[in-house]
Amino acid sequence: MPDSLFGSDSETESINEDVSSSESPAGLEYIPNALSEELVEPLMEYLAENIANHQQLHLFPPIPSVILDVSRLCIPQPWKDKFWHGREMEAGIIQKYEIGQGIGWHVDLDRFTDGVAILSLLSATTLSFRHVKDRARRWNVKLEPGSVVLISGEARYEWEHSIEGKDWDGSEGTGWWKRGRRISVTMRRVRDDRKTES
Fold first, then answer.
1. Rounded distance between C-alpha atoms, residue 22 and residue 42, angstroms
2. SS3 assignment, position 135
3. What are phi and psi of 97, to 5 degrees?
4. Which of 24, 35, 39, 121 is deepest in the core (most CB within 10 A)?
5. Residue 45 DSSP label
6. How far apart are CA 119 and CA 147, in angstroms?
């Protein structure tokens, strides 16, 4: 695992860019440098101990304290007030992406409430969105290491998202970079009427 959760400097030189003629999905927010320095060491230790031999780790209560700290310190409180009734995350997935690995088009499961937060670590990647009813409407967001992307409302329910599987990423506007290993921490809350589901 790299020494820094933020990746190398070469991965953070460019900015997000819309590569289509569409407008940004309503409810999509991007926060660069969201991971506070105080969380770097304990989060690195937790990941080294718990995901080294796994591709994916599902989190349900009791949520590890370091992940709750990520929810507490990296996600703006006004956003949590609006979508999570002021509470912290209660369900999560830690996903490890090897170089060149992606994930197909999807909308997050309906059992979760509105409001999804994703922390990106180690390497930059492009998160792509397309409208479920008009697939010509597209939007790309470059997720820098240490950043958080917030997905709610229209972006949560009317757009699907994916990460294309490829070794090199970028565009003419953002510049090009070779992907490294990436880890994402997806944080959500479960709908009250779906909490009895196994």
1. 40
2. coil
3. -110, 120
4. 121
5. H
6. 6
| Phi, then psi, of 83 in degrees rounded to 5 | -105, -25
Token output for 55: 């591709």
Say which DSSP state 122 is in: S
Distance CA 129, CA 135 (A): 9
Contact 93, 58 (CB under 8 A): yes
- Which neighbouring-strand residues pair with 143? 125
Q: Which residues, at least 6 apart from 95, have a Cβ–Cβ distance to it below 8 Å?
A: 55, 56, 103, 183, 184, 186
pTM of the entire predicted model = 0.89
- Sequence letter at residue 52: A
Listed in sequence order, the DSSP H helices in 64-185 are 65-74, 77-83, 153-157
- Specify which residues 187 forms β-bridges with: 92, 117
Amino acid at residue number 33 = N
Q: What is the pLDDT of residues 118-153, one digit of tens each?
A: 999 999 999 999 999 999 999 999 999 999 999 999
User: One-letter amino acid identity for 73?
Assistant: L
